[in-house]
Amino acid sequence: MGFSEEKAVVVFSGGQDSTTCLFWALEQFQEVTAVTFDYGQRHDNEIETARDIAADLGVEHHVLDMSLLNQLAPNALTRDDMEVKEGEDGELPSTFVEGRNLLFFSFASILASQKGAKHVVTGVCETDYSGYPDCRDVFVKSLNVTLNLAVGKEFVLHTPLMWLDKKETWELADKLGRLTYVKDNTLTCYHGIRGNGCGECPACKLRRAGYEQYMQEKERELE
């Protein structure tokens, strides 16, 4: 199969960031495929949300079994008996899944190779990344080189949100004409509630703060 500049695979969780990236990719590339990884998340709602959004947008969607992550790296996103809490004293949050992006990006690139897609799009960012080492720009650039050597193709890993905070991510969604869609249909909440979520978990607080900051800025510009 040929290797196309016009094809992309988006690592897609159905959350705010990856959905914004999906809309970004649909603007950039002629053919877009979304891939979601089932790694034993506490809430099936995440996978169902991804399926629903992909179907609504008419995007080809794959769900890949990555349950080995749950065996290797216990974390609060997969274990009911672990509390969702932010990191203290320099420690990573309980929601950090060791090796997740290393595996996700690698498998997404293998799928991209099968699809003849040159581009792989992910929603990681350093600005609001809670200290996750596998969300850093240096990691993505390093992995990009490694994947090219491993597969023998010139993939390009895109991270449209790398240097954006949550306010700026909402702004990007708005520029793409999809702010309301992202707000109402995505799932960011650690407790599996779509849209505005529970409002109390770290993910919901970060999402809401960014939205309020963006709307306040937008209102000031309209005055």
Automatic annotation (TrEMBL):
Reaction(s) catalysed (UniProt annotation): 7-carboxy-7-carbaguanine + NH4(+) + 2 ATP = 7-cyano-7-carbaguanine + 2 AMP + 2 diphosphate + 2 H(+)
- Cofactor names: Zn(2+)
Q: Which GO terms describe its molecular function?
A: ligase activity
Q: Which residues bind ATP?
A: F12, S13, G14, G15, Q16, D17, S18, T19, T20, C21, L22
Q: How does it assemble?
A: Homodimer.
The family line of this record is: Belongs to the QueC family.
- Known role: Catalyzes the ATP-dependent conversion of 7-carboxy-7-deazaguanine (CDG) to 7-cyano-7-deazaguanine (preQ(0)).
Name-wise, this protein is 7-cyano-7-deazaguanine synthase
